[in-house]
């Protein structure tokens, strides 16, 4: 099964109320929607993120499922969740993949293309 049958959409948001620029703490939320356009169900088993801030500091995050779940996504359905990350700079990027399993038990990686985390109006 290829990534073409399962899609990922990302929406990001800067959280000013939780951020403190004086302490180099910039908090971002991201909402991910995974849509299954394949013929069979798929299950999200694990995740791996690479998060890079504007200083080039890299954080790797790996673990089972997302937000405490390993959701099964039926054909035509979507699964949406929101999570967050903290950077030391007002701009950064994230990318990674989900470890998925299809209905026949075959594992595949669902690539999450790089997306930007940025405090509004920081980029000119």
UniProtKB/TrEMBL annotation:
Q: What is the name of the protein in this document?
A: Protein ApaG
InterPro entries annotated for this entry?
ApaG_domain (IPR007474), ApaG_sf (IPR036767), Uncharacterised_ApaG (IPR023065)
- What NCBIfam families does the entry give? PRK05461.1
A single GO BP: error-free translesion synthesis
Q: Name one Pfam family in it.
A: DUF525
Residues forming the ApaG domain are: 1-124
């Amino acid at each position: 099964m290829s990534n073409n049958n399962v899609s990922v959409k990302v929406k990001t948001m800067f959280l000013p109320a939780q951020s403190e620029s004086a302490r180099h703490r910039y908090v971002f939320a991201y909402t991910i929607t995974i849509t299954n356009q394949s013929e069979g169900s798929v299950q999200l088993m694990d995740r791996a993120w690479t998060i890079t801030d504007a200083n080039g500091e890299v954080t790797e995050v790996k673990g089972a499922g997302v937000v405490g779940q390993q959701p099964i996504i039926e054909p035509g359905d979507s699964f949406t969740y929101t999570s967050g990350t903290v950077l030391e700079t007002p701009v950064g990027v994230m990318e990674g993949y989900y470890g998925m399993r299809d209905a026949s038990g075959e594992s595949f990686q669902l690539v999450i293309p790089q997306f930007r985390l940025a405090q509004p109006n920081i980029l000119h």
